[in-house]
Amino acid sequence: MTEPNWQQLEQLRRVDLVAYVNARQEAGIKPGSIASQLTIFRTFWPDLLAQEKVSNGAVLQVKAPPAGDHLPRYLTPTQFQRLEQVLLTQTQADRAKDRFNLTWFYLFAHAGLRLSEALNLRLADCDLSGRQLRVQSGKGDRDRVIPMSDQLVTVLQNYLMVREPASTDHLLIYKGAAVKGHLLPDRLWVLGQKADIEPMTPHRLRHTIATVLINQGMPITSLQQFLGHQDINKTLIYARVYDETVRNQFASAMAHIEGIAMADWPVQTISTEPVPISIGQICDSV
């Protein structure tokens, strides 16, 4: 979406103000603060309408998000590439600690794990041949199995060859014991600072992979299972991030449709022959 020209208020559209509200949410601004900003806007816009300096009254219909309603703070493709490049540069020596850092990073970035889920992973949870990861007792005390990307499989294979000896079967080991506390969030925060991305947290990587997946067409119910959400309403928040993709695809499709000559439009042929219907089809329809 092109940047609106804020110097010419007559060109301000409702969609521009909606985009502004969404951008403020992504920046972590609280709904109450956004509501205050919209209140200020509403105090002068009616006067501009009365003076016929602007004509778009629809912008007054834009509402602030309700309290507790936040868009996920995902990374843009450029931000993620920058963050990943910092990581790859720091780990190119391929030492044991480098393989460890690659592993926890891609568990967040490609598997979308919560911090507690990553720390709770056991060796038996990694099915490299089946290319799947078992997440035991996730949020809500529910287990799930998720697929692994090629990159995640590769870094896990490399890490397991140099994993520190330990008395526990936890996957992630640091100094002979299971990883605890703020070790991973602290390291990720430092990576974010070097990539000029703040704040950088494990959950932000979780938001990023979820946003990428839904923008690539993953059904919302599949994304729900992947993320381990019990309530699908928590997953539906990513559908709002998808709005821009839908709008772009709609514009592209409409441009194509409008370019089709009327004579080339498909014509539906109505058959007079009876169509057999199976019991299975009837059951699927009810």
Description of the structure:
The protein is mainly alpha-helical and 286 residues long. It folds into 2 domains: 9-61, no CATH class; 77-241, Orthogonal Bundle (hpI Integrase, Chain A), CATH 1.10.443. The protein is built from 12 helices and 5 strands. The strands form 2 sheets. The chain has a 3-stranded antiparallel sheet with strand order 1-2-3. It has a two-stranded antiparallel ribbon with strand order 4-5. It starts with 13 loop residues before the first helix and ends with a helix. The model is unreliable at 277-286 (pLDDT under 50).
Features:
single chain, mainly alpha, 12 helices, 286 residues, disordered C terminus, elongated, 3-stranded antiparallel sheet, hpI Integrase, Chain A, 5% strand
